[in-house]
Specification:
single chain; about 55% helix; mainly alpha; about 80 residues
């Protein structure tokens, strides 16, 4: 009976890819955290804090940056020796 040659199983991505992916998830979570809040306790009172720089410009930019980093982490060649 012939023995089949054993092949070493490897992960699809390297540790560099997973590190970049975790960083991108953290950036996306930070963006959504900065977007949250700003509501008013009384619905008849207008709260202008929902239109500040943090919620209109910074938070969506961080979310888009995080998605860009996630795509980069997938395309990154992490198994380079």
């Amino acid at each position: 009976m012939k023995k089949m040659p054993t092949t070493k199983k490897e992960f699809l991505f390297g540790s560099k890819n997973y590190r970049m992916l975790l960083i991108s998830v953290a950036v996306i979570a930070l963006g959504f955290f900065l977007m949250a809040g700003g509501g008013s306790d009384d619905p008849s009172v207008f709260n202008p804090a929902i239109f500040n720089f943090q919620r209109i410009r910074l938070a969506p930019s961080l979310v888009l940056l995080g998605f860009g980093l996630a795509m980069y982490s997938i395309l990154l060649n992490g198994n380079k020796k």
